[in-house]
């Protein structure tokens, strides 16, 4: 059997469901609401395909379909070069309005309800809410640690105090934190005493990323671990200076984007530190100022 065969079969099945007319199904549960506004319909998420068959994320406001009715989200239409994943017909111009209308009326719970989020969100806003949900847990970045929760800052100080660098804030602009970075370590963990934008006293966690992916050197950048917040408040300014074996100082000033997961993250702005700077000890010294 071709390796992709069983997956394609599943996809076809999903697409048939996605393209089906959106009349109430046998297993949808009907109930007249108390205000007498007519019938409310509950849909078993398994009864109607409400996720993109390609990326398996919940559909957002726009759903596209090919002329045979196979559905895909806007991003995937671009990803598959606007050729239907199932039948090869063009996809990306025609919207699937009936499915969009149903999706627009659907509500659901945030997936972080077990961490205390009580929000009922529109299904099509689910992904956006969850990215910014203040109750979303953070995973510990330290290698081999499985902690996942709401108190990452405290966890890092309690369990990994030897691996984290504490950064004081609200200090004069000339104060920087100095640390040594090894060429082979993918990041260093930095903790800032207090969440500077909320002042809640919870502290913030930053990673100084030491990325590969560039030729003849490494790419350094700073990110903040946590939910993205509305209005860009989370984007804290920072300045970093790198000193290596070559004379001179490499420096970068920018804002630290917020990331929930490092997986798939690519820094838009970084400081290129060439191989020559790391030799011969494979280390550079980094001074950093946040806020
Ligand atoms: Zn998709
Ligand atoms: Zn198709
Ligand atoms: Zn939430
Ligand atoms: Zn940990």
UniProtKB/TrEMBL annotation:
E3 ubiquitin-protein ligase that mediates ubiquitination and subsequent proteasomal degradation of target proteins. E3 ubiquitin ligases accept ubiquitin from an E2 ubiquitin-conjugating enzyme in the form of a thioester and then directly transfers the ubiquitin to targeted substrates. It probably triggers the ubiquitin-mediated degradation of different substrates. PROSITE patterns: ZF_SIAH. Residues 105-161 form the SIAH-type domain. It comes from Urochloa decumbens. Residues 17-26 have a biased composition (Low complexity). Gene3D superfamilies: Zinc/RING finger domain, C3HC4 (zinc finger) (3.30.40.10). Residues 1-26 are annotated as: Disordered. It comes from the Eukaryota. Pfam families: Sina_ZnF. Keywords: Metal-binding, Zinc, Zinc-finger. The keyword Zinc applies. InterPro entries: SINL_plant, Znf_RING/FYVE/PHD, Znf_SIAH. One of its GO terms (molecular function) is zinc ion binding. SUPFAM superfamilies: TRAF domain-like. This is SIAH-type domain-containing protein.
